[in-house]
Amino acid sequence: MTVQTVRVTPSAEGARVIQLADGDGWFTVCDRSLLTPGRGVAALLPDGRQVALFVDRSGRTYAIDNRDPFTGAYVLSRGLVGSSDGRPFVASPLLKQRFDLATGSCLDDDEVSVAVFGVRAD
Amino acid sequence: MPVPTTPNAPAAGVPTIVVVGHGMVGQRFLEALADRGLTAAAGTARVVVLCEEPRPAYDRVQLTSYFSGRTPDDLSLVEPDFMARHGIELHLGDPAETVDRETRRVVSRSGLSFTYDTLVLATGSYPFVPPVPGKDAEGCFVYRTIEDLLAIEEYAKTATTGAVVGGGLLGLEAAGALKGLGLDTHVVEFAPRLMPVQVDAGGGAALLRTIENMGLTVHTGVGTQEVTADERGAVNGMNLSDGSSLATDLVVFSAGVRPRDQLARDCGLAVGQRGGIIVDEECRTSDGDVFAIGECALASDGRVYGLVAPGYEMAQTVAGVIAGETASFTGADLSTKLKLLGVDVASFGDAHGAAEGCLDVVYSDSRSGVYKKLVIGQDGTLLGGVLVGDADQYGTLRPMTGTVLPVAPEQLVLPAGAGGPVTLGPSSLPDDAVICSCHNVTKGAICEHTTLPEVKKCTKAGTGCGSCVKVIGQLLPQSADKGLCGCFPYTRSELYEIVRTLGATSYAALLDSHGRPAARGGDGCEICKPTVGSIIASLAPTLGASGYVLDGEQAALQDTNDHFLANLQRNGSYSIVPRIPGGEITPEKLIVIGEVARDFGLYTKITGGQRIDMFGARVDQLPLIWTRLVDAGFESGHAYGKSLRTVKSCVGQTWCRYGVQDSVKMAIDLELRYRGLRSPHKLKSAVSGCARECAEARGKDFGIIATANGWNLYVGGNGGAEPRHADLLAQDLSDAELVRLIDRFLMFYIRTAERLERTSTWLDRIEGGLDHVRDVVVHDSLGICAELERLMSDHVAGYRDEWSETINDPERLRRFVTFVNAPDAPDPSVKFVPERDQVKPDLDILAGPVLAIRTLEGTAS
Ligand code: SRM
Ligand SMILES: Cc1cc2nc3c(=O)[nH]c(=O)nc-3n(C[C@H](O)[C@H](O)[C@H](O)COP(=O)(O)OP(=O)(O)OC[C@H]3O[C@@H](n4cnc5c(N)ncnc54)[C@H](O)[C@@H]3O)c2cc1C
Ligand code: SF4
Ligand code: FES
């Protein structure tokens, strides 16, 4: 048996793509259809930074740093998305702290936050 | 800190620390130095250790385990490369012979000479041998070092009877060892009871009864007057102070220990009247450049501590003082809890009732060997106590010492049925009792808050290993809202009923129709999503939903482990556990596992559940690894799911001389039947081939033990943080009866349990307990058994292996990339370093703040 590696072509023609703010411009990450509502994916920026991208139920996209500040592991993209009082968050898959997707602040520890990235889908 | 020029060779001019004695405390001191960077490798100090014994420090506390199969190497306390890594000079078998404090010179037996800036004496104790005639005859031993044990073991080969002089802690341990060597064993104790230091007369009597039941002969209240020998000079008996004599081939003296302070005496350091090198609170001797730690020291509170924990504290203190920290050792708690020859013995606080006007509350049952005593002060405060035979309450009582008990003390010592015992819940703990040991948070600090999230946020309690969360829950005000989470006002079992009756297969629809008003239309949360996902999966074949947990909306509900069908590890890598039903595996399959692990560089370990775990796979490697495993006939072991884990087995009737049924076959059958079954929490099982219970079935959610007539089924067992033995549900079942009963039991549990509630807590919680469950699943009191059985047969018929489905479907494989925009780039943060011939996660790379910048091109392999 062989395994097929799935190749994702960024920015397929005509389809909506996800773009991340990068310096003054926008960096195209991938086709919009690759994101499942309620889940995230990780993306690699040209300078080597890792970004966690999410789309919520209503189709809004969010991007925060992929590094879980509590453990140092690059895993936030693998957490579950939820909302509380209308605010979207992701729960770290390791020790379950919640991070506000819009502001990057940790909802369980006032002193901790992660970076937020500009993101757009068009 | 200066940068070392050559590692292991200290730069000129750094101070020299000489340590005399490499025992338990000596080694801890070296570790404390290394922690503080005070080593040659760090270029800050030269450290020289003189060790009298022929081997580096080992675990003396566990000495006796040598007789149960632990080798001297197993007992070692020193990692193989510890000395080399830190550049510490260790001289084995070469004791210090003289110390000249004028010239600051230590000379060893072999003639090595070292000039010290700081000298640390950690020479421990020597066993005291009473000066009785014949004490040096052949066949007389002491019990302190590995060499002593080797000699006893050798001599015991030609002996049939052994006697231990001394019935204290160590004497009883030695007696147990002699018994284990097959000798007819006697214990001779001068005091009127056993373990005179730790327990009082009543406790000694309970202990005596239990120890005699084990076949040891105990003589209390008599002294040893003489050891007699035959013409060859070998021991043949002992004469006792009551005029009697005892024939014995071997004698072990265990009459207490004395501090080894001779070296200190010889060089003029102050020693106590009854021995011990006098030290101050910083553990400094009468010479400011010389420290003494461990059993050789007479601490500033006037005590010589014969326990290892206070010695460790002294080691930390001295390392701290040398490093310029403020540190002191002013005394330690002598509370102990031990298991002696299998008997629990604990004493704490003022165990002997020395305080004026105090009174004892005692419960004693010499038949069962249980003795409990609490010492209560005049004002009702708990001052201390002794527990023999059943020391379960030690954990709650010790922290309450010094406080007034919340209930009458007799209620705490009486057995159930006689007015007690009141199990003291956490509410009775004093405010300063530590509840979360990971973050050192006290009860008082927790009780300042009202909700668990708040406690976690403000105190960090419960955010480490999580084992204290249950107790925290009991301390917080109980809310009337039993809802699963902020999104649903229903419990898990209510949600199960809703899903089942509505035939709901969509989480979003369920949230919008049954969620709390504010949560409707939202995204839910990480608690209810996997819970509802699991309910839908348990009922999938019945609901007509896809049984594959990663299909459609279900994929978005799963925790990361289920999402990637593997277990997330601390560095973001995953572990892989193929199913090995019943623990039975062919050599070919073992070889495949070995080859896969080798080819992918995975760390490999036998798990506690009779399986093999391979750690350190990157997300993108999972499909490649599973392709090889599936090709070889493996399937998912569901180590990641709240579902059936293993059904452990013992070898059973096929091979074992005691077995009465084929436990391996039954374990395999059960594991294959229930594999993939999603449930409120994980499910574990085991099958033993006879009552010897080698598979530990009574520690499992459902455990099966063979009888001559069939099988006994036990339910509600648990290991983990709060172990519970499973209760007998039904006896002497045929194969078919057994399976049918388990089907019903599991489906009833899945239907009625709460989120993350193991069968053990479920059984203890549901109204009517075991009797109710038996009524429902054995006697069908609710008339639902047919339905429960149907649900299970739907599950069995609908089972498909998640991994073979995944690797055969390109769509499903899409998720197994680290980066959505660079599918071929491996995760640069998942890296490994060597450890014991395998690998472990490289955590330095995660230490942050961020990974070294790399270009996108650079990371693509
Ligand atoms: C791998 C293994 C340790 C090992 O190297 O031996 C292990 C590893 C984990 N155990 Fe375990 N447990 C393992 C055997 C056990 C056992 C022994 C047994 O199964 O006989 C127990 C006690 C028995 C029991 O469960 O009653 C055990 C009691 C726990 C508990 C406490 C459960 C409880 O009810 O108190 C947890 C925490 C939990 O589930 O909430 C836990 C949780 C975990 C987790 C899932 C913690 C986590 O979330 O990372 C670990 C991850 C597994 C992984 O990454 O693969 N593990 N764990 C063992 C896997 C066995 C297997 O083949 O599937
Ligand atoms: C069988 C047994 C069971 C025990 N069980 C427990 C228990 O359950 N709990 C508990 O707390 N404690 C227990 N203890 C006590 C515990 O082992 C000691 O408290 C601990 O070992 C003390 O550590 P130490 O380093 O001070 O002394 P040791 O471990 O004795 O080390 C001192 C070392 O110094 C060496 N030495 C002496 N003089 C010189 C010299 N001049 N030059 C070089 N080296 C020298 C000795 O050879 C020895 O290796 C037990 C002890 C025994 C023997
Ligand atoms: S449980 Fe019984 S049959 Fe199984 S290995 Fe042990 S003694 Fe043998
Ligand atoms: S004891 Fe509280 S988190 Fe471990």
TrEMBL record, chain A:
Domain of life the protein comes from: Bacteria
Pfam family of the protein (one): Rieske_2
EC number annotated for this UniProt entry: 1.7.1.15
Biological process terms in GO annotation: nitrate assimilation
Keywords: 2Fe-2S, Iron, Iron-sulfur, Metal-binding, Nitrate assimilation, Oxidoreductase
Span of domain Rieske: 27-122
CDD domains, A to Z: Rieske_NirD
Entry-linked PANTHER family: NITRITE REDUCTASE (NADH) SMALL SUBUNIT (PTHR40562:SF1), PTHR40562
NCBIfam families: nirD_assim_sml (TIGR02378)
Protein name according to UniProt: Nitrite reductase (NADH) small subunit
Automatic annotation (TrEMBL), chain B:
Residues in BFD-like [2Fe-2S]-binding domain copies: 434-476
Function: Catalyzes the reduction of sulfite to sulfide, a step in the biosynthesis of sulfur-containing amino acids and cofactors.
The protein's annotated pathway: Nitrogen metabolism; nitrate reduction (assimilation)
Any GO molecular function: 2 iron, 2 sulfur cluster binding
This enzyme's EC code(s): 1.8.7.1
Chain ranges of the Nitrite/sulphite reductase 4Fe-4S domain: 641-777
Entry-linked InterPro entries: BFD-like_2Fe2S-bd_dom, BFD-like_2Fe2S-bd_dom_sf, FAD/NAD-bd_sf, FAD/NAD-binding_dom, FAD/NAD-linked_Rdtase_dimer_sf, NasD-like, NiRdtase/SiRdtase_haem-b_fer, Nit/Sulf_reduc_fer-like_dom_sf
Gene3D superfamilies named in the record: 3.30.390.30, BFD-like [2Fe-2S]-binding domain, FAD/NAD(P)-binding domain, Sulfite Reductase Hemoprotein, domain 1
BP term (GO), one: nitrate assimilation
Record domain Nitrite/Sulfite reductase ferredoxin-like: where: 569-629
Family stated for the protein in its record: Belongs to the nitrite and sulfite reductase 4Fe-4S domain family.
NCBIfam families: nitri_red_nirB, PRK14989.1
Protein name: assimilatory sulfite reductase (ferredoxin)
Signal peptide bounds: none
Residues that hold [4Fe-4S] cluster according to the record: 650, 656, 690, 694
All copies of domain FAD/NAD(P)-binding, residue ranges: 16-302
Binding locations of siroheme: 694
Note describing how the cofactor binds: Binds 1 [4Fe-4S] cluster per subunit.
Chain ranges of the NADH-rubredoxin oxidoreductase C-terminal domain: 335-396
